[in-house]
Amino acid sequence: MTDPLVIFTPSGKRGHVAPGTTVLEAARQLGVDLDSVCGGRGICSKCQIQPGTGAFPKHGITVAQDALSEVNAVEQRYDDKRGLKPGRRLGCQARIQSDILLDVPPESQLHRQVIRKEAAQRDIHLDPAIRLVYVEVTQPDMHDPSGDLERLRSALRDQWQIEDLQTDLASLKTLQTTLRKGNWSVTAALHQTDGPPRLAALWPGLYEGPVAGLAIDLGSTTIAGHLCDLRTGAVLASSGLMNPQIRFGEDLMSRVSYAMMTEGGAEEMTRAVRDGLADLIRTLASEAGIPPETILDLTLVCNPVMHHLVLGIDPYELGQAPFALATADALTLTAANLDLPAAPSAGLYVLPCIAGHVGADAAAVALSEAPDRAEDLTLIVDVGTNAEILLGHKGRVLACSSPTGPAFEGAQISAGQRAAPGAIERVEIAPLTRIPRVRVIGSDLWSDDPAFDHPVTGICGSGIIEAIAEMRRAGLLDASGLIGSAAQTGSDRILPDGRTHAYLLHDGEPRITVTNADIRAIQMAKAALYAGARLLMDKFGTDSVDRIVLAGAFGAHISPDHALILGMIPDADPAQVTSAGNAAGTGARIALLDKSSRPRIEKLVRQIEKIETAIEPRFQEHFVAASAIPNSADPFPLTRARAALPEPSFQAGADASRRRRRRPA
Ligand code: FES
Asked: Ligand 1 centroid vs 42 CA: distance in angstroms?
């Protein structure tokens, strides 16, 4: 007689096992993901399965009523005490007697897919670095003297075939009390990536409380954190705060100079950012209703300067050519190394940096957007104070960063402000009347709606981009970026502004205008961004890209049409310009939830070709050619949006002498 056939769904894995084999053993033999924390003792219920009975023609199997052994005393006790869902069985207790079809419900699967909310096209594979195991440890014996840690190690070896457990002092300090409190039964959280397992936490008895991880995207302006359930992959809480280092300088270079010029400045900034991270962790934990000590693993992405400052490394070398990093490699540390409030032995993985100007945040974007796996040639632009740009497909990826400056974040703009309630974020200008209407953060209504009553306080980065593109579309601005006079444009919203003009965008308190100086600042920023992208395209030997992905919080708010009119990005079909939201944060979350992504990104970062814009003469050429609106140098056929642009020229005006093009510093 042949051995019973076992088919597991949804994996579809199948095979024959000896009669009397438990479902848990069968799953292990056939390589099926079936969870177990208690090691088959019938107390954790992680191994639950749902057997099917009757005929399953699709699978070519008929299952008898008694295909599984009857409910035994252990299962009955669990059912009486904790309750099993109808039809469910404990896989570690139920034995296979004849052909059987077994469904593994999602909560019993060790590795599963987590749907990405931001972009549905790819899901995260759940395979965290943390694993919980329940062990029964032998009590100490006068006749066989050995330490508690040694006995925990042999219990793990005997009961779980786990060898070579590593511990740090923090875990060792609590080991003895925990073992005794649990009456020699404990649940160990093991942190393991490619090396031996490390004890991340230990609880008395069978631990069924929260098991959390935290993905951190540490930006120069804001810090964002996503607290995740490591059992399900679900996001428990997301929150952000301003980087407390802002008080030492808005942009990265001013922080590097603060570190250079001020005795103890680097240490001061390290303390500030670590304190900020600690606050964020406490906020997230309290929002999720869990103690911070249940955070067992963390991942961190950031730009090179933040990387050095948070780790306590002086960023001095990053302030001068050749911008050498202390290390570009990924780091596997503990949260305690950065004084973060988490489990005392929680892991901390810092993603690798790509180069001295292209940080772990860009590596996280690469992990999230996977340009190396793209079939289409994909340009990914993460817009911030420094734009980080990736271009690639089919295994080849190039990267560079471009000094866009803070104009895209609303700095250097006369009415500029950060993206906060009251900031104009959307602009439309009627082509005939040249009358604008705006929408501000915090309101769903346009300003021409009678019900609109939100205060308008300034204009943020996406708002100024739309305003300038709309002004260009309405013929208020010529291709060189010059605003025409009231007489030239026929618009009474054009106001004299010294020797140039300004456009009245919002007539209220405060009055918000777009000045020629604002346009110059945006022209510089967008020319730098475009020149970086164009340089990568040169290196790739191409004049066009198939797809453009705008990453970052700012990228999420830019309308593709306006970005194309402005010439921020190479010309493309607007339908192929998409936003990836906070791709760096998503990359940090992938690294947290799927440990196999860590060696993957480390390998990709080594393969990425780094282009240094500062030493490329072509960068300057592209920059100069890219300051027109849209770029006069863009060699591609005009898109529909651009083809409709009027072609006014205000060069004959009194402002012609100010039309000198500027180069980046
Ligand atoms: Fe824990 Fe079955 S493995 S109850």
From this structure: 4
**Whether the Cβ atoms of residue 413 and residue 460 lie closer than 8 Å to each other:** no
What is the Cα–Cα distance from 571 to 207, expressed in whole angstroms?
A: 56
SS3 at position 554: helix
- pLDDT per residue as tens digits for the range 7-49: 998 888 899 999 999 999 999 999 888 988 888 889 888 899 9
Contact 22 CB / ligand 1 (< 6 Å):
no
Distance 23 CA to ligand 1 centre (A): 11
Lowest mean pLDDT among 30-34, 202-206, 249-253, 338-342: 249-253
Q: How far apart are CA 551 and CA 388, in angstroms?
A: 9
Q: Half-sphere exposure of residue 308, counting CA atoms within 13 Å on the CB side?
A: 24
Distance 96 CA to ligand 1 centre (A): 16
Report pLDDT for 639.
53
Residue pLDDT, tens place only, 544-586: 899 999 988 777 788 888 998 888 999 888 889 988 888 899 9
Q: Is 90 in the pocket of ligand 1 (CB under 6 A)?
A: yes
How much is the pLDDT for 632? Answer: 64
For residues 627 and 634, what is the distance between their CA atoms, to the nearest angstrom? 11
94 lines ligand 1 (CB under 6 A): no
Q: How many CB atoms lie within 10 A of CB 504?
A: 16
Structure tokens at 113: 């897919």
CA dist 208 and 185 (Å) reads 14
Distance from C-alpha of 91 to C-alpha of 100, rounded to nearest angstrom:
13
Alpha helices, H only, 112-216 = 148-160, 169-181
Ligand 1 atom closest to 39 (CA)? 3
Q: For residues 17 and 206, what is the distance between their CA atoms, to the nearest angstrom? A: 30
pLDDT at 115 over 50: no
